[in-house]
Structure formats: structure tokens, C-alpha cells
From TrEMBL:
Family of the protein in this entry: Belongs to the peptidase M50B family.
Signal peptide extent: none
Organism: Vigna angularis var. angularis
Annotated ranges, domain Peptidase M50: 282-444
Membrane topology of the entry: Multi-pass membrane protein
Protein name from the UniProt record: Peptidase M50 domain-containing protein
Gene: Vigan.03G079200
Length: 522
């Protein structure tokens, strides 16, 4: 069987059915696969010939004769196929009883088949597996909220494109759609282009996310209606709950700085007048906490991130565990998240280290100060190293020394900053690790940190309370960013790593003995 084309330019590529519907196009034995919404039937095209379309003298089409095989076994079908091949091609077209089928009809059939599959896949209530939008709770949505099929076609053909993100497949995601494909160029620039086209077409009706698929670590685009991203409301006003936590934290900070009340905390209610003795220490620690939170809010204002009211967490052991501050909007990218997350600890460490140095240098105001055993400085690598550097031979094993209370107060502030710098969940350290190395690495850091804190809690009650707090309140996951693919700049990477290292140095013990030999080698 053979044929020839007189004018190749007149043969239009869209007249052929998609390759997914044929098995051997060159032998002209085309078979349509089973598709949803159509009864399964096998058609055999026994002859092809060109014909002139009567509607236009310049257009040519393809006429094909279609025969329906009788019901029977596969062997009978193969035998019938062999018999058909022995017939002359010019006769086979005459023997056919089916009318010619225009190439445009083939296209309509293929398009209808494709549309039917799209409708069934997009109308499904099943959420795409490995969904890369953690932190967004599934919810029952009305049909009016779900993205219609016509809009999805516009997204594929007019919003995404070869120059930004070439879509190869799509899956339903709650009220939106998850698009898989190939990212073109830099992620940040592609995101800006796609966002602009999306806004030009639909205004602020939809929100775009450019994320990493946890299944294969490849870029994916997610488009969801903005109505599904409304922040959760609480039964108790945020400011009221934050104020209640703040009052309790003030009380615990005062108790923490009154040595007479350390052995019996409940006796503080019978000796409220003693609380004034803890006011200086409480103010210093509160100042470090306040500067920490101020750093967050200044960085958030610079990046356009909205923060909620900070919830200060009280602690009987160290006065406070810091504050829990919610991010109320969607962070644009990982660099902005790193700026906001690192600004708080960086400000807190800066002030805490300054006060710690002043405490070692300045003599106590009353001439006595606080008497502590030298071994206490083994509890922190950073504090012990600074103490040995500044105190020299005065710091010896087994001897008691008098230090300015400012050392203890500043140390407590550094410890609170260090606890918040642990790379776990939605702590500052967890957000920093996410911004530096991505979501998957952040989840691994969270698991390792919680496990280590769990082991430490066997020996330290502070670690026990902190691991409970992380597990129930701060374990995450971190809400999705608008664009999670682009890495932060090198300057901000250095800042983030510095914050994590400072937290590690504060929490790790000082392993070297305080002796003269150590000083000489130091």
C-alpha cells in the first residue's frame, strides 16, 4: 500500500491523531486505546487516500476506510487482518461499507477523548500524592471554589509557557491544581513572569506556588484559589492570650532571679516583697528577649512579612523559653525567610555577648557580686571560653569566684537565644535550616534535634520541657513559601550559619580543664 502527497505544505500536522492513540502508524494499522467515557472498540484502517475537501479547493484531507472486526478470538482477528493485507489497496476502499472520515473528525475525536480524561482527573476528590503544600489543612470545598476546567486550560496555554515552566502533566490538589513539568531559566525570574501573567488574566483570584516535589525533588507549580488560604481564626483574641502569657513570663523571670525563692517556688506567693530583688536580673533578660523580637519585626517590615503577636513562653528553670511568633502571610522566598528568622537571634546574641563581656570586666556594684564555683563555666563552651580568656588564672578547678551578676543574667539571655536557634520545626533555627538547605533537609534536622533533645532530657529538665514544647507546639511543618527553589544569597547564608554555630557553642559544654597549663596552651 502506498500513497503520495502532492503538496506537503498543505498537509497540516494537527490532522493526525496523537501518538498515544496508535501503535504502528507506518503500517497504517491504527488502534485507539481504551479511554474513560468511551466504549472499548478496536478500529482498523484498511486504506488511506487523499481527497479534496469540497468546502475548499485548496485543502486536502485523508479519507480512511474503517472496518469493525467481528466478535471472536484474537486468532480469528489476526487471520482476518492477514486476509485484508492480501487485497489490493484500490479494491479495499471500494469494498468498505463505512463512509469516509475527515481528518478533522479524527482531531475532534482525539480532543474529546483528551477532554474527557481531563474532566475525570480534575473532578476527582483525590489529593495528589506527595503534596508539596504542607501546613495547608485539607478542607471540603464547594464547586464554586474549585478551579474550573476552562481556567486550567488557560493556565496551561497562556499563563505557563516554554519560556517559564513547560507543563507536562497535572494533578488535582484540594481546590487547586498541581502542575508538573520543566522549569526554564532561573526560578525567581520564571516565578515573576508567571505571577504577572496570572494576575493579568485573573487578578488576585488565584495564588501561585513554585515548589519542590518531595517525591522526585523536581520543580512543580501549584495554583490554588486565594479563598482557600485564609488564616485560621482563634476563639480567644490573639492579644489577650499573648498578654496572659506575658504576665506569667514576667513572674517567672522575677522568681528566677531571686536566689531565696529557688528552693521553694510556691513560697513566692507568701513573700511577694522579695520579688523586687529579682527585678534587675529580670530586666536584663527581658531586654535581651525584647531586642530579639525587635530584630524579627524590623526584618519582617523590610521584607513585607507580617508577624503575629509574640507569645512569651514562661519557664521555671531559666525565666522564659523565648517567644512563639506566627507568620501571618505567605513569605515570598527562602532568602526573605532567612532574613526574618536570623534577625532575632542575631540581635539577641549581639546584645547578650556585649553584656557578658561587660559582666566579666566590670566589678560588682556591691563589691561582692555572685559567688559561683568555677565548674559552672563548663556548662557552656562559649561562656567557658570567654571566662577563661578574660579571668585567666583566677578561674581554677574547685575554686569559688565572685563575678558580676550581669554575667549570669546575660548568660541566661544567650541560652534563651540558643534554645530558639535549635534547627527544629518552626523555631528560628528550624526556619533558618529550611531557608539554607530546603524543606527536606529541614525535616531531617527536626527529627535529629528532637531525638537528641529527648536523650538530653534524661539528664536535664530544661531539655525535657523544651522537647515537649517543640513536639506539641513548634514541630511544624513550615507553611509553603511562594517560591522555594531559589537559594539565598551568600551573605545571608553566612549569617544563618553563624546563628546556628553560636547556638551550638552556647549549648555545648566546655571540655577543657581550668588549669595553668590550659592557659599557657590557650
Amino acid at each position: 500500500m502506498s500513497f503520495s502527497l502532492a503538496a506537503p505544505s498543505a498537509f497540516r500536522g494537527n490532522l493526525l491523531p496523537p501518538l498515544s492513540h496508535c501503535t504502528s502508524c507506518f503500517e497504517f494499522d491504527l488502534r485507539f486505546h481504551r479511554s474513560h467515557g468511551f466504549p472499548h472498540s478496536r478500529c482498523r484502517f484498511t486504506s488511506f487516500k487523499l481527497f479534496r475537501n469540497p468546502r475548499s479547493s485548496r485543502r486536502r484531507g485523508i479519507a480512511c476506510s474503517v472496518t469493525e472486526p467481528p466478535n471472536g478470538s484474537d486468532e480469528q482477528e489476526k487471520e482476518a487482518y492477514k486476509n485484508e493485507e492480501t487485497l489490493p489497496s484500490e479494491d479495499s476502499s471500494v469494498q468498505s461499507t463505512s463512509p469516509p472520515v475527515d481528518g478533522e473528525q479524527l482531531n475532534e475525536f482525539s480532543d474529546a477523548n483528551k477532554d474527557q480524561n481531563d474532566v475525570q482527573s480534575l473532578d476527582s476528590d483525590e489529593v495528589a500524592s506527595g503534596s508539596p503544600l504542607p501546613g495547608v489543612k485539607p478542607q471540603k470545598l464547594d464547586e464554586a471554589i474549585k478551579i474550573p476546567k476552562e481556567t486550567i486550560e488557560i493556565l496551561r496555554s497562556q499563563v505557563f509557557g516554554f519560556d517559564t515552566f513547560f507543563v507536562t502533566s497535572q494533578d488535582p490538589y484540594e481546590g487547586g491544581v498541581l502542575f508538573k513539568g520543566n522549569l526554564r531559566g532561573q526560578a525567581a525570574k520564571s516565578y515573576d513572569k508567571i505571577s504577572k501573567r496570572l494576575k493579568d488574566k485573573f487578578g488576585d483570584e488565584y495564588k501561585l506556588f513554585l515548589l519542590v516535589n518531595p517525591e522526585d525533588d523536581k520543580p512543580v507549580a501549584v495554583v490554588v484559589p486565594r479563598t482557600t488560604l485564609q488564616p485560621e481564626t482563634t476563639a480567644v483574641p490573639e492579644w489577650f492570650a499573648a498578654g496572659a502569657f506575658g504576665l506569667v513570663t514576667v513572674f517567672t523571670l522575677l522568681i528566677r532571679n531571686v536566689p531565696a525563692l529557688q528552693s521553694d517556688l510556691l513560697s513566692a506567693f507568701d513573700n511577694l516583697n522579695l520579688l523586687k530583688d529579682g527585678l534587675p536580673g529580670a530586666l536584663v533578660t527581658a531586654l535581651i528577649l525584647g531586642v530579639h523580637e525587635l530584630g524579627h519585626f524590623l526584618a519582617a517590615k523590610d521584607t513585607g512579612v507580617k508577624l503575629g503577636v509574640p507569645y512569651f513562653v514562661p519557664s521555671w528553670q531559666i525565666g522564659s523559653f523565648g517567644a512563639i511568633t506566627r507568620i501571618r502571610n505567605i513569605v515570598p522566598n527562602r532568602e526573605d525567610l532567612l532574613k526574618v528568622a536570623a534577625a532575632g537571634p542575631l540581635a539577641g546574641y549581639s546584645l547578650g555577648l556585649l553584656l557578658l563581656f561587660l559582666g566579666f570586666v566590670l566589678p560588682p556594684s556591691d563589691g561582692l557580686g555572685v559567688v559561683v564555683d568555677a565548674s559552672v563555666f563548663h556548662e557552656s563552651f562559649l561562656a567557658g571560653g570567654i571566662a577563661k580568656l578574660l579571668l585567666g588564672n583566677v578561674l581554677k578547678e574547685g575554686t569559688a569566684i565572685s563575678v558580676n551578676p550581669l554575667v549570669i543574667w546575660a548568660w541566661a539571655g544567650l541560652l534563651i537565644n540558643a534554645i530558639n536557634s535549635i534547627p527544629a520545626g518552626e523555631l528560628d533555627g528550624g526556619r533558618i535550616s529550611f531557608a539554607l538547605w530546603g524543606r527536606k533537609a529541614s525535616l531531617r534536622f527536626t527529627g535529629v534535634s528532637i531525638a537528641l533533645l529527648g536523650l538530653s532530657s534524661l539528664l536535664n529538665d530544661v531539655a525535657f520541657y523544651w522537647v515537649v514544647l517543640i513536639f506539641f507546639l513548634q514541630r511544624g511543618p513550615i507553611a509553603p513559601l511562594s517560591e522555594e527553589i531559589t537559594d539565598p544569597g551568600e551573605k545571608y547564608v553566612a549569617i544563618g550559619i553563624t546563628v546556628l554555630l553560636l547556638g551550638l557553642l552556647v549549648c555545648l559544654p566546655y571540655p577543657f580543664p581550668f588549669t595553668d597549663e590550659t592557659l599557657t596552651s590557650f
